[in-house]
Design goal:
- The protein is of the alpha+beta class.
- It folds into 2 domains: 3-200, 3-Layer(aba) Sandwich (Rossmann fold), CATH 3.40.50; 203-242.
- 33% of the residues lie in helices and 23% in strands.
- The chain contains 7 helices and 10 strands.
- The strands form 3 sheets. The protein has a 4-stranded mixed β-sheet with strand order 1-2-6-5, sandwiched between helices.
- A hairpin with a 2-residue loop joins strand 3 (116-119) and strand 4.
- The longest helix has 20 residues, at 3-22.
- The protein is elongated, with a radius of gyration of 20 Å.
- Residues 20-30 have low confidence and may be disordered.
C-alpha cells in the first residue's frame, strides 16, 4: 500500500469523525425503524453478482448485524479480487468498558472474544474476533485506525468539537498497535485472485441467485426464474412482490 493511500485513508477517517462531531440528532423516535431498515439493507447484499464491485465502505452498520461471519462472506463474494473494503465496527474492549467491568458495573467481560448484545440488535465486537472473521472471509487487514478517543460528555461540553476532532485525528494511528476505543476502522483488501475479465453484471437475482439478467428500460428480467425486478426513475427495486 502506497504512502498516498495511507494518507487518504487517514484523511477519510478524520473527515468522518469531524462530521460526526458536528452532527446534532433531533429527539425523534426512529430507532427501531432505523434498525429494521439497516437490517434489510445489509441482508440485500445477496443480490450483488460475484466480484461485482471494487470498493466497499461500511460505517455504523455492522453492529446491527447478528451473523457477522456470514455477512463478511457475502461481502467477500461480491468484492473483486484485490478490491478494498473499509469497515467500522463497535469495539467491546475499550477503556470505559474495562473500567466498568473492573468496578463491577457491567456483567460482560470486555476481554472475552465473543460478541456481546448489550441491547436488542446492538452488538459490540472484540477486535481480535473481528480480525479472525475478516481473515476467514479472505480479507487481508492492511491498516487499523481507532476513533472516538474522547467520547466523554464532560469533554464534549468543555472542549470545542473541532479541537476534539483534531486531537482524535492525531491519536488514530495508534490503532496499529492497540485498540482501546469504542470505534475501530479497518482497511482491508480482498485476498481473492483478481479476475482477468471483470464481470459486467452488477446484480444477481435475489430469488434464484442467477446472474443471467437482461435489462430493459423498465425492468431487470431474470432468465433463471423469469422474475421481473422494476426500474423506476433509474432506481432498481428488489423487493419481493414489487
Amino acid at each position: 500500500m502506497s504512502n498516498d493511500n495511507k494518507i487518504e485513508f487517514h484523511s477519510l477517517i478524520t473527515q468522518l469523525y469531524r462530521r460526526a462531531s458536528r452532527a446534532v440528532v433531533s429527539q425523534l423516535n426512529f430507532r427501531n425503524e432505523l434498525i429494521n431498515r439497516l437490517y434489510e439493507a445489509v441482508s440485500r447484499i445477496r443480490l450483488g453478482a460475484d466480484s461485482a464491485i471494487d470498493v466497499a465502505m461500511m460505517v455504523r452498520v455492522i453492529h446491527h448485524v447478528e451473523k457477522v461471519p456470514a455477512f463478511l462472506g457475502e461481502m467477500g463474494r461480491v468484492l473483486a479480487g484485490g478490491g478494498t473494503y473499509v469497515l467500522e465496527f463497535a469495539s467491546k474492549r475499550h477503556l470505559k468498558s474495562i473500567l466498568r467491568y473492573a468496578l463491577r458495573g457491567q456483567s460482560w467481560n470486555p476481554f472475552d472474544q465473543e460478541p456481546v448484545e448489550f441491547v436488542a440488535m446492538n452488538f459490540d465486537f472484540h477486535p481480535d474476533w473481528m480480525r479472525d472473521c475478516l481473515r476467514e472471509a479472505m480479507f487481508h487487514v492492511k491498516h487499523i485506525r481507532t476513533v472516538s478517543h474522547f467520547r466523554l460528555p464532560l469533554l464534549k461540553k468543555a472542549v470545542p468539537a473541532n479541537l476534539l476532532a483534531t486531537a482524535d485525528g492525531l491519536c488514530q494511528p495508534t490503532g496499529a498497535w492497540w485498540q482501546l476505543t469504542p470505534s475501530v476502522f479497518v482497511q482491508c483488501t480482498s485476498g481473492k485472485e483478481a479476475s482477468a475479465t471483470p464481470t459486467a453484471q452488477l446484480f444477481r437475482c435475489p430469488s434464484c441467485h442467477s446472474s443471467d439478467l437482461a435489462e430493459s428500460a423498465k425492468a431487470l428480467v431474470c432468465h433463471g426464474c423469469s422474475t421481473h425486478w422494476p426500474i423506476e426513475d433509474g432506481i432498481y427495486t428488489f423487493k419481493v412482490g414489487s
